[in-house]
Fold this sequence. Notes:
Blueprint: H1 20-27, H2 30-60, H3 77-84, H4 86-116, H5 124-132, H6 139-150, H7 155-162, H8 179-204, H9 208-216, H10 221-232, H11 234-249, H12 253-258, H13 270-280, H14 284-315
Amino acid sequence: MAASDPAVPAPAPARGRSTGRFARTRRQGGPRRVSWFLVLPGLFCLFAFHIVPSVAGGWYAFTDWDGLSQAHWIGLDNFSRVFSNPTSKNALLHTFELGGAFFVLANAIGLGLALALNRTLKSRNALRSIFFLPVAMSPLAVAFIWQYIFDYDGALNRALGAVGLESWKHTWLGDPKWALWTVLVVLVWQFSGLTMVIYLAGLQGISDELIEASAVDGANTWTRFRRIVLPLLAPAITVAATLTMIYGLRVFDQVVALTGGGPVDSTETLATQVWKETFANGHFGYGAALSLILTAVIAVLSLGQLAVLRARERRI
Protein backbone atom coordinates (compact mmCIF):
# COMPACT_ATOMS: atom_id res chain seq x y z
CA MET A 1 0.00 0.00 0.00
CA ALA A 2 1.48 3.31 -1.05
CA ALA A 3 2.42 5.73 1.68
CA SER A 4 0.14 8.72 1.83
CA ASP A 5 1.50 12.15 0.90
CA PRO A 6 2.60 14.27 3.82
CA ALA A 7 0.19 16.98 4.83
CA VAL A 8 0.86 20.30 3.17
CA PRO A 9 1.26 23.05 5.83
CA ALA A 10 -1.12 25.97 5.64
CA PRO A 11 0.46 29.14 4.20
CA ALA A 12 1.53 31.70 6.79
CA PRO A 13 -0.32 35.00 6.73
CA ALA A 14 1.39 37.76 4.85
CA ARG A 15 3.57 39.93 7.07
CA GLY A 16 2.11 43.31 7.88
CA ARG A 17 -1.48 42.23 7.02
CA SER A 18 -4.00 42.28 9.87
CA THR A 19 -6.19 39.20 10.26
CA GLY A 20 -9.35 38.23 12.08
CA ARG A 21 -11.34 40.51 14.33
CA PHE A 22 -8.65 43.18 14.54
CA ALA A 23 -8.64 43.55 10.74
CA ARG A 24 -12.40 43.95 10.69
CA THR A 25 -12.15 46.50 13.52
CA ARG A 26 -9.60 48.54 11.61
CA ARG A 27 -11.70 48.45 8.44
CA GLN A 28 -14.66 49.70 10.46
CA GLY A 29 -12.63 52.56 11.94
CA GLY A 30 -12.58 51.19 15.50
CA PRO A 31 -9.13 52.34 16.68
CA ARG A 32 -9.79 55.75 15.15
CA ARG A 33 -12.93 56.07 17.27
CA VAL A 34 -11.00 54.93 20.32
CA SER A 35 -8.35 57.59 19.72
CA TRP A 36 -11.03 60.29 19.55
CA PHE A 37 -12.50 59.05 22.84
CA LEU A 38 -9.05 59.40 24.41
CA VAL A 39 -8.80 63.00 23.18
CA LEU A 40 -12.25 64.02 24.40
CA PRO A 41 -11.28 64.64 28.08
CA GLY A 42 -8.53 67.03 27.01
CA LEU A 43 -10.82 68.81 24.56
CA PHE A 44 -13.49 69.14 27.24
CA CYS A 45 -11.02 70.70 29.71
CA LEU A 46 -9.73 73.08 27.02
CA PHE A 47 -13.27 74.13 26.14
CA ALA A 48 -14.56 74.38 29.72
CA PHE A 49 -11.59 76.04 31.41
CA HIS A 50 -10.08 78.13 28.62
CA ILE A 51 -12.38 78.90 25.71
CA VAL A 52 -15.62 79.44 27.67
CA PRO A 53 -14.01 81.71 30.36
CA SER A 54 -12.22 83.70 27.65
CA VAL A 55 -15.42 84.28 25.69
CA ALA A 56 -17.34 85.11 28.87
CA GLY A 57 -14.62 87.54 29.95
CA GLY A 58 -14.80 89.25 26.59
CA TRP A 59 -18.55 89.66 26.98
CA TYR A 60 -18.26 91.01 30.55
CA ALA A 61 -15.89 93.70 29.29
CA PHE A 62 -18.95 95.41 27.79
CA THR A 63 -20.99 95.22 31.01
CA ASP A 64 -21.00 96.78 34.48
CA TRP A 65 -20.79 93.42 36.28
CA ASP A 66 -19.50 93.62 39.86
CA GLY A 67 -19.21 89.88 40.44
CA LEU A 68 -22.45 89.57 42.41
CA SER A 69 -25.38 91.36 40.82
CA GLN A 70 -26.74 90.92 37.33
CA ALA A 71 -24.59 92.29 34.53
CA HIS A 72 -25.98 95.11 32.37
CA TRP A 73 -24.73 95.93 28.88
CA ILE A 74 -22.98 99.33 28.80
CA GLY A 75 -21.17 99.09 25.46
CA LEU A 76 -17.79 100.82 25.23
CA ASP A 77 -18.08 102.74 28.51
CA ASN A 78 -15.43 100.60 30.23
CA PHE A 79 -12.95 101.21 27.42
CA SER A 80 -13.53 104.95 27.38
CA ARG A 81 -13.06 104.93 31.15
CA VAL A 82 -9.69 103.20 30.72
CA PHE A 83 -8.37 106.02 28.54
CA SER A 84 -9.85 108.75 30.71
CA ASN A 85 -8.62 107.34 34.04
CA PRO A 86 -5.13 108.72 34.89
CA THR A 87 -4.16 105.56 36.79
CA SER A 88 -5.07 103.30 33.90
CA LYS A 89 -3.36 105.54 31.35
CA ASN A 90 -0.18 105.56 33.46
CA ALA A 91 -0.42 101.78 33.80
CA LEU A 92 -0.54 101.48 30.01
CA LEU A 93 2.49 103.77 29.70
CA HIS A 94 4.42 101.80 32.35
CA THR A 95 3.59 98.57 30.52
CA PHE A 96 5.19 99.88 27.33
CA GLU A 97 8.20 101.31 29.19
CA LEU A 98 8.88 98.17 31.19
CA GLY A 99 8.20 95.80 28.29
CA GLY A 100 10.35 97.75 25.83
CA ALA A 101 13.31 98.16 28.19
CA PHE A 102 13.16 94.49 29.22
CA PHE A 103 12.99 93.43 25.56
CA VAL A 104 16.15 95.37 24.67
CA LEU A 105 18.25 94.60 27.75
CA ALA A 106 17.37 90.91 28.08
CA ASN A 107 18.24 90.24 24.44
CA ALA A 108 21.42 92.34 24.47
CA ILE A 109 22.76 90.80 27.70
CA GLY A 110 21.69 87.29 26.68
CA LEU A 111 23.44 87.62 23.31
CA GLY A 112 26.59 88.96 24.99
CA LEU A 113 26.67 86.07 27.44
CA ALA A 114 26.08 83.56 24.65
CA LEU A 115 28.98 84.95 22.60
CA ALA A 116 31.27 84.93 25.65
CA LEU A 117 30.38 81.38 26.70
CA ASN A 118 30.10 79.77 23.29
CA ARG A 119 33.39 77.88 22.83
CA THR A 120 36.37 79.58 24.44
CA LEU A 121 36.26 79.28 28.25
CA LYS A 122 37.08 75.99 29.98
CA SER A 123 34.51 76.75 32.69
CA ARG A 124 31.79 77.64 30.19
CA ASN A 125 29.49 74.76 31.15
CA ALA A 126 29.50 75.75 34.83
CA LEU A 127 28.99 79.41 33.97
CA ARG A 128 26.09 78.56 31.66
CA SER A 129 24.38 76.70 34.51
CA ILE A 130 24.96 79.60 36.91
CA PHE A 131 23.52 82.20 34.52
CA PHE A 132 20.53 80.00 33.70
CA LEU A 133 19.77 79.15 37.35
CA PRO A 134 17.58 82.25 38.02
CA VAL A 135 15.25 81.22 35.19
CA ALA A 136 14.36 78.03 37.08
CA MET A 137 13.55 79.94 40.28
CA SER A 138 10.07 81.09 41.27
CA PRO A 139 9.43 84.72 40.26
CA LEU A 140 8.03 85.44 43.72
CA ALA A 141 11.09 83.98 45.43
CA VAL A 142 13.36 86.07 43.21
CA ALA A 143 11.31 89.21 43.93
CA PHE A 144 11.50 88.68 47.71
CA ILE A 145 15.28 88.21 47.52
CA TRP A 146 15.68 91.44 45.59
CA GLN A 147 13.27 93.20 47.94
CA TYR A 148 15.78 92.58 50.71
CA ILE A 149 18.63 93.78 48.47
CA PHE A 150 16.85 97.04 47.57
CA ASP A 151 15.66 97.77 51.12
CA TYR A 152 17.17 100.89 52.66
CA ASP A 153 19.02 98.76 55.21
CA GLY A 154 19.57 96.01 52.66
CA ALA A 155 22.58 94.60 50.89
CA LEU A 156 22.87 97.24 48.14
CA ASN A 157 22.97 100.28 50.41
CA ARG A 158 25.30 98.47 52.81
CA ALA A 159 27.68 97.72 49.96
CA LEU A 160 27.56 101.36 48.85
CA GLY A 161 28.31 102.52 52.38
CA ALA A 162 31.17 100.05 52.72
CA VAL A 163 32.99 101.53 49.70
CA GLY A 164 32.46 105.13 50.77
CA LEU A 165 29.44 105.94 48.59
CA GLU A 166 26.98 106.84 51.34
CA SER A 167 25.58 109.63 49.18
CA TRP A 168 24.36 107.01 46.72
CA LYS A 169 22.25 105.22 49.32
CA HIS A 170 18.62 105.41 48.36
CA THR A 171 15.13 104.14 49.12
CA TRP A 172 15.05 102.29 45.82
CA LEU A 173 11.60 100.74 46.15
CA GLY A 174 10.06 103.79 47.84
CA ASP A 175 11.04 106.41 45.27
CA PRO A 176 8.56 106.85 42.38
CA LYS A 177 11.44 107.79 40.07
CA TRP A 178 13.37 104.58 40.71
CA ALA A 179 10.77 101.95 41.62
CA LEU A 180 9.88 100.94 38.05
CA TRP A 181 13.54 100.51 37.11
CA THR A 182 14.21 98.32 40.14
CA VAL A 183 11.54 96.00 38.79
CA LEU A 184 13.34 96.08 35.44
CA VAL A 185 16.63 95.08 37.10
CA VAL A 186 14.97 92.04 38.66
CA LEU A 187 13.38 90.99 35.37
CA VAL A 188 16.61 91.32 33.40
CA TRP A 189 18.60 89.48 36.08
CA GLN A 190 16.18 86.56 36.08
CA PHE A 191 15.54 86.10 32.37
CA SER A 192 18.78 87.04 30.62
CA GLY A 193 19.82 83.41 31.12
CA LEU A 194 16.85 82.27 29.05
CA THR A 195 17.82 84.38 26.05
CA MET A 196 21.44 83.26 26.56
CA VAL A 197 20.42 79.62 26.12
CA ILE A 198 18.39 80.44 22.99
CA TYR A 199 21.29 82.30 21.42
CA LEU A 200 23.74 79.57 22.44
CA ALA A 201 21.59 77.06 20.57
CA GLY A 202 21.76 79.27 17.50
CA LEU A 203 25.53 79.75 17.77
CA GLN A 204 26.07 75.99 18.03
CA GLY A 205 24.53 75.63 14.58
CA ILE A 206 27.05 77.99 12.92
CA SER A 207 29.92 76.13 11.30
CA ASP A 208 33.41 76.81 12.65
CA GLU A 209 34.80 76.40 9.14
CA LEU A 210 32.69 79.32 7.94
CA ILE A 211 34.05 81.60 10.67
CA GLU A 212 37.62 80.46 10.06
CA ALA A 213 37.29 80.99 6.31
CA SER A 214 36.08 84.55 6.83
CA ALA A 215 38.99 85.21 9.19
CA VAL A 216 41.43 83.92 6.57
CA ASP A 217 39.84 86.27 4.04
CA GLY A 218 40.70 89.18 6.34
CA ALA A 219 37.36 89.86 8.09
CA ASN A 220 37.83 91.30 11.56
CA THR A 221 35.76 90.29 14.61
CA TRP A 222 33.08 92.95 14.13
CA THR A 223 32.70 92.17 10.43
CA ARG A 224 32.38 88.44 11.12
CA PHE A 225 29.72 89.11 13.75
CA ARG A 226 27.74 91.55 11.60
CA ARG A 227 28.01 89.79 8.25
CA ILE A 228 28.01 86.11 9.24
CA VAL A 229 27.01 85.41 12.84
CA LEU A 230 24.11 87.84 13.17
CA PRO A 231 22.33 86.81 9.92
CA LEU A 232 22.68 83.12 10.78
CA LEU A 233 21.24 83.82 14.24
CA ALA A 234 17.99 85.11 12.72
CA PRO A 235 15.84 82.12 13.86
CA ALA A 236 17.17 82.37 17.42
CA ILE A 237 16.59 86.13 17.42
CA THR A 238 12.99 85.57 16.35
CA VAL A 239 12.32 83.15 19.22
CA ALA A 240 14.10 85.19 21.90
CA ALA A 241 12.59 88.51 20.79
CA THR A 242 9.05 87.12 20.73
CA LEU A 243 9.31 85.50 24.16
CA THR A 244 10.81 88.58 25.82
CA MET A 245 8.24 90.87 24.22
CA ILE A 246 5.35 88.77 25.51
CA TYR A 247 6.76 88.34 29.01
CA GLY A 248 7.79 91.98 29.39
CA LEU A 249 4.30 93.22 28.55
CA ARG A 250 2.44 90.84 30.86
CA VAL A 251 4.78 90.91 33.88
CA PHE A 252 2.85 90.63 37.14
CA ASP A 253 4.47 88.57 39.91
CA GLN A 254 7.59 90.68 40.33
CA VAL A 255 5.67 93.95 40.42
CA VAL A 256 3.21 92.74 43.05
CA ALA A 257 5.93 91.22 45.25
CA LEU A 258 8.35 94.16 45.01
CA THR A 259 6.14 97.25 45.10
CA GLY A 260 2.48 96.22 44.87
CA GLY A 261 2.09 98.82 42.14
CA GLY A 262 3.38 101.68 44.29
CA PRO A 263 4.67 104.02 45.39
CA VAL A 264 1.99 106.44 44.16
CA ASP A 265 1.05 104.02 41.33
CA SER A 266 4.51 104.51 39.79
CA THR A 267 4.87 100.79 38.99
CA GLU A 268 1.30 100.02 38.01
CA THR A 269 1.01 98.01 34.80
CA LEU A 270 -2.01 96.74 32.90
CA ALA A 271 -1.58 93.31 34.49
CA THR A 272 -1.62 94.68 38.04
CA GLN A 273 -4.55 96.93 37.18
CA VAL A 274 -6.54 93.92 35.98
CA TRP A 275 -5.93 92.19 39.30
CA LYS A 276 -6.72 95.23 41.46
CA GLU A 277 -9.83 96.35 39.62
CA THR A 278 -11.24 92.82 39.39
CA PHE A 279 -10.45 91.17 42.70
CA ALA A 280 -9.65 94.08 45.03
CA ASN A 281 -12.25 96.63 43.88
CA GLY A 282 -14.88 94.22 42.53
CA HIS A 283 -15.10 95.95 39.14
CA PHE A 284 -15.23 92.76 37.10
CA GLY A 285 -16.48 94.42 33.92
CA TYR A 286 -13.81 97.11 34.04
CA GLY A 287 -11.14 94.53 34.82
CA ALA A 288 -12.27 92.46 31.84
CA ALA A 289 -11.93 95.52 29.61
CA LEU A 290 -8.39 96.08 30.88
CA SER A 291 -7.54 92.44 30.21
CA LEU A 292 -8.88 92.73 26.65
CA ILE A 293 -6.72 95.78 26.04
CA LEU A 294 -3.67 93.96 27.44
CA THR A 295 -4.40 90.95 25.23
CA ALA A 296 -4.75 93.16 22.18
CA VAL A 297 -1.49 94.99 22.94
CA ILE A 298 0.44 91.74 23.36
CA ALA A 299 -1.12 90.17 20.26
CA VAL A 300 -0.50 93.16 17.99
CA LEU A 301 3.08 93.81 19.09
CA SER A 302 4.24 90.20 19.31
CA LEU A 303 2.57 89.03 16.08
CA GLY A 304 3.73 92.14 14.22
CA GLN A 305 7.27 91.64 15.44
CA LEU A 306 7.10 87.94 14.57
CA ALA A 307 5.96 88.73 11.02
CA VAL A 308 8.79 91.24 10.53
CA LEU A 309 11.45 88.86 11.85
CA ARG A 310 10.12 85.94 9.80
CA ALA A 311 10.23 88.07 6.67
CA ARG A 312 13.81 89.01 7.52
CA GLU A 313 14.70 85.32 7.86
CA ARG A 314 13.35 84.59 4.39
CA ARG A 315 15.41 87.42 2.88
CA ILE A 316 18.65 86.10 4.37
